[in-house]
Sequence to fold (433 residues):
Amino acid sequence: MARELSRSTQLQQRAERYFPGGVNSPVRAFRAVGGNPPFITRAEGAWLYDVDGNRYLDYVGSWGPMILGHAAPHVIQAIEAAARRGVSYGASTPIESDLAELINRAVPSIQKMRFVSSGTEAVMSAIRLARAFTNRKFIIKFEGCYHGHADALLVKAGSGVATLGIPGSAGVPEETAQFTLAIPYNNIAAVEAAFAAHPNAIACVIVEPVVGNSGTIAPAPGYLQALRDITQKNGALLLFDEVMTGFRVSLGGAQQLYNIQPDLTTLGKIVGGGLPVGVFGGREEIMDMLAPLGPVYQAGTLSGNPLAMAAGSATVGYLLAHHKDVYSQLEKSTAAIAEGVAKLAAEAGVPLTTNRVGSMFTWFFTAAPVTDYASASTSNTESFGTFHRAMLDAGVWLPPSQFEAAFVGTEHNDVTLKLTLKAAAHAFKTLKN
Ligand code: KE4
Fold:
């Protein structure tokens, strides 16, 4: 049953007056799945509410941050209390170190860190630091991985770049892109070949330790350890981009789950509790190259913003205090959702490959195993679009792209599971007709 979306449609037209495509971030435009996006005006728990009075069960969670659900009371209270003390001072505050202590307890490899206002800013700064520390220019990234929209990283990127099928991005000079080596994920020989072709020239390897931006793809057994060994051997730094996996796949992120110690880590999303926070950090000797101690410049007007620190501390503090219950609950609830729908697809004869790590997952509309961007690209994106629209009509909000991860939070439960399975059974029937 198609949803009443007339107010959203009006608002889309108004938004297109001010924003390219009517959005402030391309993936929100629903271009890959068709139709206009519902305009959201409120969210609570596992639910989004649009301007036409429709309710949606949310599996995007603001693209990852909302692991505790929307408008978690203790997070809202922390933000309200902080706001009453003023919203930004442009000066040092105790609450920055409060959040830093929590991050360091959860992710001990982050000995020192810097707060910034987005994942893009965190990655951009970490790359600059890695190049300065090693005095080398080249970086290795992996096809289908997305690390934000800084020039050097928009080479064969995932997420919205893959969703829109654009090769990279206009406006990135060849002189910049030439130092970015983009190679297949889960392929160690390709990494060895890149180092052999560029001896003593590669500053770092940046990886989504669990890929989310091609859809969800887990590292092959031993892959991350091999990256750690190869970078160690070649004097390059290993940079784990945990903007998505941080506090998501476990309290300590993918580096805890797979027991790998990177040299640098970037965080975002959950670490800010839904407010703008990015983090880059790692070994003290590397971080101390940053101004005002060292020659690498990095700065930000709203870095360490008190409200964002309050939201992040309330979120990370809760996860630290309750991690045993939270992550075992998320493991169970996400498995039930991902595998429950996979079973329905099999019963409906719809080819589906389900990849899941913790509470992030993707249903790929392909029969092939998905282990890298090339295999993810065998997915039938048209089928994905039909499925997405049918689920949206049934009140289930999935990421509007085959090349994105879906997320489960602590507010998803047996009631939302039942709704999801019912909607999926109907959606697969739509696909088969
Ligand atoms: P932001 O600049 O969007 O805060 O973070 C960039 C980033 C860096 N690294 C990873 C692993 C990321 O997943 C992201 C951002 N993720 C996308 C969704 N896949 C953000 C959503 C959007 O672009 O609107």
Remarks:
- The CA atoms of residues 3 and 393 lie 6 Å apart.
